[in-house]
Amino acid sequence: MDAGVPRFPFLRLPEDVQLKAVRQMPMMEILNFSLSSKQTKSTVRKLKVDVYGIDVQINEKIQITVAGSHRVVLTFNDPNDMAPKAEFRWRVPSQLIPNPGFRFEQWPNHLLYIFNQPRIRNLVFDGVPCIQDLLSFRRTFDKFQSLTIHSTCPDHVAQEVLNNFRPKNKLVLKKHMPDIDHYITSNLDEIHMKTIIELDQLLIMNSNLISIRTPKFSSRDMNRFLKLWIAGSNRNLEVLGIVFESPPGLEMNKVLKGISHENVPDDVGRKFTDWRIERLSWVVYGGINIRRRGDGAIATIKYVADNRIFYMYVSPS
């Protein structure tokens, strides 16, 4: 009988008995069990194992991480590696998983299915990838929520990744890339960047959350940005965070020049709901309120001078 399947007629047992038995297995056995047949694959899916997401990291190897209460990392030496090594959270020694005849692209699909995940959560490129043909590799991933490109990626690799891999929700760039206008105008929920950008590039972003580390913006730039926001730019924006990497940072009297605003006492808080998870919210104390013309939306802005961090939180009127 196939590895991972008990030798007695386990699959003839009632479904509820099967599920109860499989639920007691260690994660390695559950994974092996799911590879044995279509029926065992379906049984594991019905377990609804507590999984937060499935992530893929690509550098000199490929790692697929199942993040959850039982964390599993499958490591492939390259896309032609058919028998990945599995590492488990609770200090279980690494083990090779028997390959049921999968090609590499079948592994992500199998994991998404058995763990009830609609798509890859995070796709991360870090360093020089072991993949020669990124365009062909792209076909492995139909949909993924987030794309991260680390500073360790060579420039030509980072550009090729941006050209071929389009995330559904979130883009994270941890290196400077010169030609990004086409990507930052996509209707992404979140953009996180450590790069040199112009104010005009910030103004064309359509995201809900924008986080930037940059040496570029001046107090005059931020004044112009706020005036254009009041006039109607960046209408999807809900949270903006900018870290000014070069001193002297911002001079708030110049940032607010010519802008009608209200200083909020430090002991007065405003509650903001997280658009990603409705049950989550946070409270911002103090700051400065400005109002957008037209719809009356209110933005609370704060500047932490010691860390040179500018925050802007937007809520409906």
Automatic annotation (TrEMBL):
PANTHER family: CYCLIN-RELATED F-BOX FAMILY (PTHR22899)
InterPro entries: F-box_dom (IPR001810), F-box_Sdz-33 (IPR012885), Zygotic_Embryogenesis-Asso (IPR053222)
One Pfam match: FBA_2
Organism (species): Caenorhabditis nigoni
Name of the protein in its database record: F-box domain-containing protein
This protein's encoding gene: Cnig_chr_III.g11777
Residue span, F-box domain: 7-56
